[in-house]
Amino acid sequence: MERPRFTPKMSRCLHQVAEKVEGLGQFVMKTRRTLKGHGNKVLCMDWCKDKRRIVSSSQDGKVIVWDAFTTNKEHAVTMPCTWVMACAYAPSGCAVACGGLDNKCSVYPLSLDKNENLAAKKKSVAMHTNYLSACSFTNSDMQILTSSGDGTCALWDVESGQLLQSFHGHAADVLCLDLAPSETGNTFVSGGCDKKANVWDMRSGQCIQSFETHESDINSVRYYPSGDAFASGSDDATCRLYDLRADREVAIYSKESIIFGVSSVDFSLSGRLLFGGYNDYTINVWDVLKGTRVSILFGHENRVSTLRVSPDGTAFCTGSWDHTLRIWA
Amino acid sequence: MPVINVDDLTDKDKAVMEVNQLKIEVKLERWLTSKCCEEIKDYIQAGVEEDTLVKGISEEKNPFKEKGGCVIC
Asked: Would you say which domain of life the source belongs to (chain A) (predicted)?
């Protein structure tokens, strides 16, 4: 039994529908801030809801909270492991979660007192049987969703550390996850080394939809702003858009000249632009409707490993194996 | 709740998982793709005017504008 394979012609559906839409003009986006301080590859970052603070994590075992306006470091924590592959800001802005090769996800409350030792207040929340690849708070500081190299995703209660729900269905490491925008209900999407993107019901633990059109690991998944679709980025050097109600891929973003994997994707506020961070050190900016690349951004001196648009859509941040983070606007 | 590690699953376990999943999904009610694409297009066009990264922003309003130098008079 096999999933249907979609031909490139069918995948252009969104672009066909958008044929008469006006193309986008020239883009002038440049690095506005460079955040230096990590001693090794930056692996993950997340924005605070206040649109100015950022948390980042690195292979050097450090998790840093930055003020992106001033580039000042506000907090720094040293984890007991290297390769902190995942980090996330709590919705309240009062805590951060992180984890990686320690197979755990831990929560650190952020203190206003700069002298306070954050590590002392650390709370271990999630326990997997392999590395933690991604984590995200749900709508509150009370629950965390995690994905792991052990092939599962899980939902945890932060206060008690209790496992609330387990999500099984991937046949290999799960590399990424994203929660549906709160208006659309309790679902999330995950992507894995089995080339599949799965959509899950958080309450039942059931996989409700599955998509398998990528030709390699899916490194990043991100819901489209309305919640009716999601984008993915893969080692097969393409980004794809999947519509949840049509239950299929509706667009593919690729070029023959782009041969390196996509590590991270995110949408602009309206969903018109899709930003992709690539292993060839660049960021490609795609017109979601037309399928064309509208800009290529240079600056990082090694792989772009993580990319997120700010909560109000005024800028986006990238993290790289070159040890830095950059804010682009 | 059973907690698993994919490394412990056999190929047969994975195939059974896949078939069970397909049986669930075959019951999904699907919309016409052309209708869904129209909706995506409409959604974007409704919001694009407010999208700073698409429309651009004046330097004064840009919270990330480059910090100016200081001039001592």
From this structure: Eukaryota
Contact criterion met (CB < 8 Å) for B47 and A271: yes
Q: What is the pLDDT of residue A184?
A: 64
Q: Are A156 and A146 in contact (CB under 8 A)?
A: yes
| pLDDT, tens only, A46-68 | 999 999 999 999 999 999 999 99
E strand or H helix that includes residue B1:
none
Q: List A residues 11-70 in contact with B (Cβ-Cβ < 8 A).
A: 13-14, 16-18, 21, 24, 28-29, 32-33, 51-52, 68-69
pTM to 2 decimal places: 0.93
Residue by residue, DSSP assigns A56-121 as EEETTSEEEEEETTT--EEEEEE-SSS---EEEE-TTSSEEEEESTTSEEEEEEPPS-TTS-GGGG
Any idea which residue has 């894995």 for tokens?
Answer: A192
Rounded to whole angstroms, how far apart are CA atoms A96 and A37?
18
Top CATH class of B9-54 equals few secondary structures
Q: Show me where the domains of chain B are located.
A: 9-54
Q: What are phi and psi of A325, to 5 degrees?
A: -120, 150
Q: How far is B71 from chain A (nearest CA, A)?
A: 19
